[in-house]
Design brief:
6 copies of one chain form a homohexamer. By secondary structure, chain A is of the alpha/beta class. Helix content of chain A is 48%, strand content 13%. Chain A is built from 13 helices and 9 strands. Chain A is globular, with a radius of gyration of 20 Å. Chain A folds into 2 domains: 245 residues, Alpha-Beta Complex (2-enoyl-CoA Hydratase, Chain A, domain 1); 54 residues, Lyase 2-enoyl-coa Hydratase, Chain  A, domain 2 (Orthogonal Bundle), CATH 1.10.12. In chain A, a hairpin with a 2-residue loop joins strand 1 and strand 2. The first copy, chain A, has a 6-stranded mixed beta sheet, with helices on both faces. At the A-C interface, helix 10, helix 11, helix 12 and helix 13 of A face helix 4, helix 5, helix 7 and helix 8 of C. Chains A, B, C, D, E, F: InterPro entries: ClpP/crotonase-like_dom_sf (IPR029045), Ech1-like (IPR045002), Enoyl-CoA_hydra/iso (IPR001753), Enoyl-CoA_hydra_C (IPR014748). Chains A, B, C, D, E, F: This is Delta(3,5)-Delta(2,4)-dienoyl-CoA isomerase, mitochondrial. Chains A, B, C, D, E, F: It comes from Dicentrarchus labrax.
Chain lengths: 309, 309, 309, 309, 309, 309
Amino acid sequence: VKNKFKNSFFSQHGLWLPSQAAVRAMSSPAGPSPPYTTLAISHPAEFVTHVELHRPKKLNAMNKAFWSEMVDCFNEIAGNPECRVVVVSGAGKIFTAGIDLMDMASDILQPEGDDTARVSWNLRKIITKYQETFSVIEKCPKPVVVAVHGSCIGGGVDLITACDIRLCTQDTWFQVKEVDIGLAADVGTLQRLPKVIGSSSLVNELALTARKLYADEAKSSGLVSRVFTDKEAMMAGALEIAGEIAARSPVAVQGTKINLIYARDHSVAEGLDYMANWNMSMLQTQDVMKSAQAAMEKKSPKTIVFSKL
Amino acid sequence: VKNKFKNSFFSQHGLWLPSQAAVRAMSSPAGPSPPYTTLAISHPAEFVTHVELHRPKKLNAMNKAFWSEMVDCFNEIAGNPECRVVVVSGAGKIFTAGIDLMDMASDILQPEGDDTARVSWNLRKIITKYQETFSVIEKCPKPVVVAVHGSCIGGGVDLITACDIRLCTQDTWFQVKEVDIGLAADVGTLQRLPKVIGSSSLVNELALTARKLYADEAKSSGLVSRVFTDKEAMMAGALEIAGEIAARSPVAVQGTKINLIYARDHSVAEGLDYMANWNMSMLQTQDVMKSAQAAMEKKSPKTIVFSKL
Amino acid sequence: VKNKFKNSFFSQHGLWLPSQAAVRAMSSPAGPSPPYTTLAISHPAEFVTHVELHRPKKLNAMNKAFWSEMVDCFNEIAGNPECRVVVVSGAGKIFTAGIDLMDMASDILQPEGDDTARVSWNLRKIITKYQETFSVIEKCPKPVVVAVHGSCIGGGVDLITACDIRLCTQDTWFQVKEVDIGLAADVGTLQRLPKVIGSSSLVNELALTARKLYADEAKSSGLVSRVFTDKEAMMAGALEIAGEIAARSPVAVQGTKINLIYARDHSVAEGLDYMANWNMSMLQTQDVMKSAQAAMEKKSPKTIVFSKL
Amino acid sequence: VKNKFKNSFFSQHGLWLPSQAAVRAMSSPAGPSPPYTTLAISHPAEFVTHVELHRPKKLNAMNKAFWSEMVDCFNEIAGNPECRVVVVSGAGKIFTAGIDLMDMASDILQPEGDDTARVSWNLRKIITKYQETFSVIEKCPKPVVVAVHGSCIGGGVDLITACDIRLCTQDTWFQVKEVDIGLAADVGTLQRLPKVIGSSSLVNELALTARKLYADEAKSSGLVSRVFTDKEAMMAGALEIAGEIAARSPVAVQGTKINLIYARDHSVAEGLDYMANWNMSMLQTQDVMKSAQAAMEKKSPKTIVFSKL
Amino acid sequence: VKNKFKNSFFSQHGLWLPSQAAVRAMSSPAGPSPPYTTLAISHPAEFVTHVELHRPKKLNAMNKAFWSEMVDCFNEIAGNPECRVVVVSGAGKIFTAGIDLMDMASDILQPEGDDTARVSWNLRKIITKYQETFSVIEKCPKPVVVAVHGSCIGGGVDLITACDIRLCTQDTWFQVKEVDIGLAADVGTLQRLPKVIGSSSLVNELALTARKLYADEAKSSGLVSRVFTDKEAMMAGALEIAGEIAARSPVAVQGTKINLIYARDHSVAEGLDYMANWNMSMLQTQDVMKSAQAAMEKKSPKTIVFSKL
Amino acid sequence: VKNKFKNSFFSQHGLWLPSQAAVRAMSSPAGPSPPYTTLAISHPAEFVTHVELHRPKKLNAMNKAFWSEMVDCFNEIAGNPECRVVVVSGAGKIFTAGIDLMDMASDILQPEGDDTARVSWNLRKIITKYQETFSVIEKCPKPVVVAVHGSCIGGGVDLITACDIRLCTQDTWFQVKEVDIGLAADVGTLQRLPKVIGSSSLVNELALTARKLYADEAKSSGLVSRVFTDKEAMMAGALEIAGEIAARSPVAVQGTKINLIYARDHSVAEGLDYMANWNMSMLQTQDVMKSAQAAMEKKSPKTIVFSKL
């Protein structure tokens, strides 16, 4: 195991190496954390929240409960100053099999309404609600690292494209599955995937043919920024990245996430204007002085005590 | 030849393997299909239309006829329910040598007009008309797979960047040629290439120096999503991809294309809103039930009979 | 040394091979060019301007003088018809260590103002002014090739993402450093980096963890379009690319840059409309005829005499 | 009183004349409707909800409770098929005195946070939350008619500009008050007022000088579309307008509101595209046939029974 | 009749007074101009085209033929250099009764399609096609003056909001009728009306209640810029305005229309950029010199001979 | 004269009545203020800057000097904390006759350039520079009140539409003159006028026919927000408005201007987001407390001493 940690990406800093205990703590044998029935929440390290999709017997398929629990969970995280970064992963054999068609069928296949217009009206409400399930990840100002193993199918791709940093294991495949069941993906993949990876030909191929994308092509296309040999190594890596982020000024980190997302959706000029308005107040944080001083004294950011945010 | 097909990308499904006959049918010895003089149209498989640039003696250079025939051709395709996917390729030695300067010179170099303003006015009309030649590919809701061999020069790059999925052979090179003849590319390359591949440094280098881009860099940069050893293998691959697409619900496939293009040009929030409005009616298709049932019964999508769209 | 030039990217044209003398001329032993104190300006070849960051003892750290000299320098370049292309590089051991915190501290850490609103007001002015330092590179219609060696830290990344073509040496690393000193990068990196490379996961990782990005990943992610073995080879390569650009019609080249930047920030439809309005006048240049004629006569663009622009 | 109703705007249809009893029912002597403490809710006519600002002793000043009760109230209304249109008015002497500075002072003047950045962070959350108080009016698809009497100050202007139809009495004045207490209006006035009335000179004058705008200028500038002699006549008029709206197809009415708001914020071309996507399902309502038939039979829309929406 | 012309708006110039013969020529006793069956086309003065809605017995209701004839008509006008300005009016008792429900019912009420998705797909095509009927007016670079008398109902409002200058007679009323037949207006009114008049309260009232708007309120709200006593006076006025426009440089006039429409849909900064790109060529017209010279010599623009455009 | 001041708009506050001496001080018998040759600058009251167009013998026609002096003048004003509000007016008989064609002819009619493209390039630079002359008014965060008398022709309309508050005398007429000299207005009128007044029909009529707009229609259309009997009364009124603005918190006033202009060019949602980012720091001003306290103590804002901004 030591080998796995040795070629750490951050060895240059050497500031954050997760312990094996911490990594092990990221599997949740006790199951979902009440009141959630599909999510297990833990805190493997200071300021780090781990959200584990936890319906392993159902391959973490996304049932009705899941769609609303994610919203509650990330709203809680967004407002919790003890959390500065999130790791998302899946319990069991695979990351997720996507939408739980059986559980969801009534909503999607037999929506209410006295005529087509009213059925459409209700479907629009449902789609909008489900879109929110992943948009909360983006609206949450704390960075979200997602660690994918095994397979990530359909709704799973919608989920991970709303996260900030994507990792996977060598044996992972991804599949934009929706077209296989007769629908255009409508909770985020078609909107975010083209802005997440740099080859529109590949995006189109994946979305139009539902073919599998394997780990190496996921890496070369930029969908994930790192591939790990196995899940344990990946969780350690995820925790290391999360640790690096948690160790830095939350003012700087969360401002960075907010402005990166704004920049994605606006022109450079608009993004710069937004940034200037943002930093005109955020630069007035004690964190700059604390961080600059630590940097000059060659101390690790980990040693700095930042006020809560 | 069998070997070429063996490592099919979709072997996981095993649903669509093009026959050699079908692939062979994609070369058009009879020449252009009347009334077209530059395009040969064929139907190598059910729901698949093949559009072949067919002026091989002129290296498929784009003459005046070509610019308007493309518009007619894709408008016909857009409205034809028998077509669900298009493959575009070039007859003869190369894909295309780009604009046919000799044939076009009068339009571009000696535009009419009594003074500079009027010449400009007329040039604007001409440029706008020529832009439409490739924009029709994008406006056509059926996915377009383009298969490039040999070389793809100048106007050829404008063409392929308006297609959805790009393939090439190992011996292909691409060239944004316009700057070599004293003009900024004005029928699509400068607008679409940066949204098609993920390296702005490379895009700029190509557009500013007119250097050649070879197949391997085309693949690694994401311009194409696959490279094939030779044209025959590529046409088989193109037909396989087309077959995969044609086998799926046209409601799902065409909705996917329309929303992917919308997403490219809008913020994620705007794209999600558009998607919700789209699917509030499109989810009410029988295709969802048919596809879901086939999926549960482990049947290939190919076995489903979808209503025409 | 000859070997370095042999596998020139443009050998297909063979039109532009920089002499060793020209390359050597790009190092500036005499130091900054008055009135500049941080920039050395030279003209290694016809129509090529070389801007060298020149505070080698300070690792080209960006002090107060630098931020305003860049604006003056690029405004001068923008208006100078003798310049058709710019190469930017750094003197000494590394490209740049980024912002000179010592010199800048008063501006950033102790801004004036009687209350928080007034401090914010003044900070906004400062940030906006510093943003302009790199936006001038983008507003300058002449293409800018940046050649990076050693390290490129913090403000250096803001600088290079505003350039058009990025090159580096094998031993270079890049670092989005700002989060390490408690602030969200506010002079361009967060706005431009996501539009410069095609992996949002990687962009987010770099910006949120401040980890180093090495030359090979810089190449595979598309941040740079070429990696060179050492600085001398890179400067020769930069000069060759610059020479290729300088040899072509300035009407075509500068129109290309302006439209590529417009396209980045607009929908394809808006970009095409802008392009049509642009070329309705720009096509009326003698450069088209001159270039077309040279092309037909198989002459190098270098032989054409273009009017000044 | 009869005279007041005689010259009804809709006498051409003659379909909806509110009874005196209905109008009288719109004043709420019983006070706020639990659980609300600042709002009295009633149902003066079928499908019509009346929301009355009800802190008359405090001149309906907007206290902390108000800001969240509005959100709850309009979310309830948005989801209630028994409501098709809303009338908003104020109990007591005036419509509203605006923000209740005493009650709100701690939030605005002494926000929490260990440093300026953290105070700013918290203020941003508060402002965003307060903006939502009026944005819910806009997000609610049922049209909102606001009836203003006496005065409408500060936050009151933010409120009414988020409503769809504005009425006032002859003795009303409006005041964009914020600049008088040292702040730029931040919950909607600066964003919506310029899109609500057609004179930017007047908007700027109002917002920069805090001068009063009287009923006649409110009418001539288009801020209100009708002025009434007194409150009783206005409430009857409001109820008549509400009745007209309630009598029509909710599919048509709510689709109209949603598309009008979309159009305000987008180009005409984008608005038309959105509209086409909207009506491709909404035209498939039985309401069209029912309404067309009634129209042909010269029956009042009031006689049609529409399915709930 | 003379009196009517005396207080001409342009008497300051005195350059263009329509003769009674010209005005009389604008009524078309001969009926529609083949191949049109719903439009009568005439040329009451040099460079002026008159398009008359001509189904007087059907109150100029918009039948199927109308929707496509408008497109053909305005495309012809757009390309015809003999036309510099258009006047649109209606033959018979009123301007138009709006959509011809009887003739259109099959399209709208019984669209084809095997399931809801396919019906929606076809409806979207139909709506988009009908939207184009009025968008051609906007895309036509020649200014369009519309002269409304009697009533302008439903589709009529969609039509006139796409015109550039609106006039009406004292006895005219306007009605956004669509909500009365159970649908949200989908061919332009909801998109253009809010950008055509300056009171959103009034726009909302009209669109949500379908109440009539009479001439005086049409004038005070800015829907029309002039009201005339009767149709004859209005036609003379329309012809006078058209004459003023026709007498000026078509380069200036058409550039003005194009840029005004662009400005409506973009920010001021984007509009200015577009304008600069436009005029960099259009200023190079002889018309500037010709017009300036005429102005200095106090000659009427009417005396200038402009080259065709 | 006293009568003129009596029915002051602000008599409700009674806080700011300009003295006759102050009003008189606004005419500049001494001529332009060096280094300006076309502008006379004075300070008629505390924090109020008066900029007078001062080439009365040339009817304040805009010559070359004017176009650059405006930029210098407003840049100075923008940075000068002693100025909180600006009044612009014209010396002599009329406000301005617009562009000084004689002085500008060489720039516009005989631009340099070896071919059409190069002439266009240079014209674009010139147009962009001239656009800046009026955009500086908008970029200056201090509100600008413009007081127009006599006539305001051509470039004058471009100027006043960039100001914040527009006043005129009873005898004023406005004219969008450009079309009369063969060009589309290119320094702001076509972009700003449609966003300044609420009738697109009127805007189009003015821009396409160059007819005069008189004071009463200027008022009813909202171009000006007030009309005065004569220039003296107007200057008093302008000074009173300016005084009202100058007496209020510069943080509130300038934030209001900046956000109003942002709102004009963005959707309501974007505007609200911008506003929240703005006020998260600006609310932390002492001005809120000072202003609130004065308001509670019924003191005039004039008595408050605000820190400089």
